[in-house]
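Quick log. Single chain, no ligands specified.
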Amino acid sequence: MADPKFSNPEQPGYVGFANLPNQVHRKSVKKGFEFTLMVAGESGLGKSTLVNSLFLTDLYPERVIPDACDKVVQTVKIDASTVEIEERGVKLRLTVVDTPGYGDAINCTDCYKPIIQYIDDQFERYLHDESGLNRRHIVDNRVHSCFYFISPTGHGLKPLDIEFMKALHNKVNIVPVIAKADTLTMGEVLKLKKRILKEINENGIQIYQLPDADDDEDEDFKEQTRCLKESIPFAVVGSTQMIEVKGKSVRGRLYPWGVVEVENPEHCDFLKLRTMLITHMQDLQEVTHDLHYENFRAQRLQSKDGDILIPETSLNLNQAQSSLQEKEAELRRMQQMVQQMQAQMKAAQKQGTGVTSHEL
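-> predicted structure:
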């Protein structure tokens, strides 16, 4: 008699591999997830506040805000903070890379180069670990997404914004964000969004494109995807302050004329930005690995003269193989020489034998 735990008589054609997604889910949840988010933009646009609002945590407990005198001589730094976040048994190892000092100097020429160097360094580290012997526990510190903050006081993109995005759009998934959207009216926000998108297209900048919803997805997900695509660039407001509104505690900013609720879709795109990040986090990682990292890997493995640069471990193997091939070739040459000498000796013996018989 069959054990009911291992059979399903009600479905005679049922094998059981439909449970594979559950296995993948359990394994992924047990292992945890890794994600690296970079925030870039001028100082004072609320980057740190927005990140703390997105993940309901304090990533910068000991940060010291420099004064005006320090900003004059401050250069672009890379500040990476990692925090372990757990929600309903799902663990996320979040690394937020901040760029203090970006755009603060009088001469901002090449101020984005330390950022490019950091992204390339993470690609280089991943390539080195991937080419090593122990590849089971590779820590993925590659930058999966970059929130680029755009000032709401300008009339579109500044030259520095265009130069930055053109320099990085082939290395990281850029998500444009309009900071401090509560300083604009709804009409001004829509006008600024159209202008930014127009300038992005005119300058050939490739920002992160949300994937289209599949045909088998439900209508709610399709509508959500359409709404998120129409909201780019996201106009956001960040705040960690809790304010009581109509007997309900909300996260927002208090002004003399009222309260701006951060998580109210009618006030800003904060919820849409967080939904985009959480819903498409896996796609951001896949695009980083399949597109940006593969482009870096191809360029890294190819030198200027077209030769292929081989990792050190592979280089040692190739050197050993080449030395073996040289030894084998030398042995073959020696064998050929021995065979030639033997053939000559046999020929000489035949000739000597023939001369003796003729004389007799």
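DSSP finds ten helices and nine strands in the chain.
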